[in-house]
Amino acid sequence: MKITIFLLTFSFVAFAISPGDIVVNEIMYNGPESGTDNEWVELFNTTASPIFLDSTFSLTDGEGTYFFEGVSIPAGGYLTIKLAENDAVPFPFTPDVDANGFGIVLSNTSDEVILKEGLVVIDEVAYIDTWGADGDGPSLERIDPAGPSSIADNWGPSLVDGGTPGAINSIYDPGGDFPPSVTEISHSPEFPIATDAVAITARITDDGAITRAKCFFSVDFAPNDSLTMFDDGAHGDGSAGDNIWGAIIPANPAGSNIRYFLEVDDDGGHSVTTWTYAYFVTTGDTLDGDLIVNEIMYNPATPMSDNYFEFIELFNRGGSAIDASGWIIKDDNDFNTFNVPAGTIIGAGEFLVIAANKDSIETLYGITGVLGPMGFQLNNTGDAVRVYNGEGTLMDYVYFSTTAPWPTSPNGGGPSLSLIDPFLDNNLADSWQASSGYGSPGAVNTTVRETGTRPSEFAILELSPNPFNAAVCVMFELAEDCDIDIRIYDINGRSVGKIFEGKALAGVHRISPDMADNPAGIYLVQLDYGSGMIVKKALLVK
User: Fold this and answer.
1) Rounded to whole angstroms, how far apart are CA atoms 490 and 480?
2) What is the dihedral sign for C-alpha 302, 60, 47, 210?
3) CB 528: neighbour CB atoms within 10 A?
4) Domains and CATH numbers, the chain
5) In angstroms, rounded to a whole number, what is the distance separating the alpha carbons of residues 451 and 424?
6) Which of 59, 66, 24, 15 minimizes the C-alpha distance to 45?
7) Do 369 and 348 meet the contact criterion of CB atoms below 8 Å apart?
8) Residue 403's pLDDT is what?
């Protein structure tokens, strides 16, 4: 293996960056050019000081990732970033940053643009095509930089074709009155038992005042009950006045299915109703076994745009074979069931694919052993996949949404919904990404990044792009100086080469091993740092 190493340590900016200090201000995701679009994004510095973007900062659409290489955004200034270029049509302006080729390709129907510093989200926009900029020429412009990022009311098509890259937006209108922003919706404990009351929390903000926040919930499909939410520090909501609002749902018997959603009003007459979330009350020792929901194709894109190409993939993450005979798969509706036939054995590290039409999936992906027909269709506005063993015990479940923070491009954009790591909590949005291409039923997910030991707060390891076709950027961050050893192994555990061994300073580092001479396949990048180890997977494609 040829290895070209660039090991760099970067200094941090002079002052702490907070979410909202930089915002995604303009997006050209569907330009007027024929063929491949010229795509770009504009960032805006909302502060009165310049902000330097070093390699701790990254831009991603949930699939590709670009790490900045050292560029400054002036106070109150703009930064334009090229994402994709049409070779047949010259790029319309000279961008400040060229991120073309890093896998960030924006969907014309729905996608997301996320700016991070390390693991902290500085700004995130999840757009859909009904917001504007439908390919006739306009860009998608933000109205108020101080307004919410992922609310349609704060976005619209530019008034000029080609947008306003590097300049004030044509629809700029500060101080607008926007609906409340309701994010970070969650329940705790994540897997309650019969004696647990459950705290429902959300981050709720507004440009005015919140006049009403209610949590509506239903137990086993009964009519909705409701609870008033508070930001007083007494309802599981953290500290008083921290914009985290909470309500407490009383304990329910084991086996109960609880659905909940929020309604929030502000003093401007706006009202927001959230997506419906859910949890199950368990016995405490059965949920999340070794057979887990690993990939979901719920809304295939053209030319596969019918339910024949829907599939659910289960994965045995354990070390022993599982006899799944008589197990039952359900969606959100208890009457929609698929019974796994007798004699179905899933070996350790193996997959089971259940499809709406088994022949269609086997033909399209060139695989065998698919089960089906599934007998029901997954809902394109969000649904569930629930896995019960032969005794009717809930073993795993995923309640997925089609809106942020869940990946949005699997909703008709082409990819499947793919679990990043089989050892993550697969009922959390952050554990999923959009697949590359049309997914990988019956094989390792194209988004898989990590296996084995969970990373600690001491060290962080990221790989980009992933999949890659020649070189992969290995970025790691250390909390303090220490001796490290980074090696690459093939999927069978054979050593391919050593990337770095020795003392590394606290901070962020980047290494770029060139693997162009290696065969295509899955490789493991292992970081040993004395007190711990992180292993992540990378897919080399050719």
Assistant:
1) 29
2) positive
3) 16
4) 22-157 (2.60.40.1260), 181-280 (2.60.40.10), 291-434 (2.60.40.1260), 459-540 (2.60.40.1930)
5) 10
6) 24
7) no
8) 76
Please give the C-alpha separations between residue 426 and each of 295, 399, 489, in angstroms, as whole numbers: 10, 9, 26
pTM of the model: 0.54
Structure-model confidence comparison of residues 93 and 514, the more confident one: 93
Radius of gyration for the chain, computed over Cα atoms and rounded to the nearest angstrom? 24
Q: Which of 28-37, 356-365, 399-408 has the lowest mean pLDDT?
A: 28-37
Number of alpha carbons in the 13 Å side-chain half-sphere of residue 342? 0
Q: Count the alpha carbons within 13 Å of 282 in the hemisphere toward its beta carbon.
A: 18
Backbone angles phi, psi at 513, to 5 degrees: -80, 135
Kindly tell me the burial class for residue 148, based on how many C-beta atoms sit within 10 Å of its own C-beta (0-12, 13-18, 19 or more).
Answer: buried
What is the enclosing helix (H) or strand (E) of 98? strand 97-98
Position 203: which residue type? R
pLDDT digits (tens, 9 = 90+) for 381-421: 788 898 988 888 788 888 888 877 788 888 887 789 999 88
Per-residue b or e along 491-513, where b marks 16 or more CB atoms closer than 10 Å to that residue's CB:
eeeeebeebbeeebeebbbbbbb
Report which of 100, 105, 204, 141 is spatially closest to residue 413, judged by C-alpha positions.
Answer: 105
Low-confidence winner among 48-52, 116-120, 490-494 (lowest mean pLDDT): 490-494
Nearest-angstrom CA–CA distance, 454 and 533: 8
Specify burial of residue 533 (Cβ count, 10 A radius: 0-12, 13-18, 19+): middle
How far apart CA 12 and CA 53 sit, in angstroms, is 9
Contacts of 174 (CB under 8 A, 6+ apart): 144, 145, 146
Place of tokens 């295509």: 520
Could you tell me where the DSSP H helices lie in 244-395?
A: 358-365
Q: Hey, what are 412's tokens?
A: 């008709």
Q: Is the peptide bond before 180 cis (omega within 30 degrees of 0)?
A: no
237: left (phi over 0), alpha (psi -120 to 50) or beta: alpha
Pairing of strands 417-419, 432-434: antiparallel
Question: Computed from CA positions of residues 94, 97, 103, 107, in that sequence, does the dihedral angle turn out positive or negative?
Answer: negative
Q: Residue 504 is inside which H or E element, if any? A: strand 495-504
Burial letters for 11-27: b for 16+ Cβ neighbours within 10 Å, e otherwise?
eebeeebeeebbbbbbb
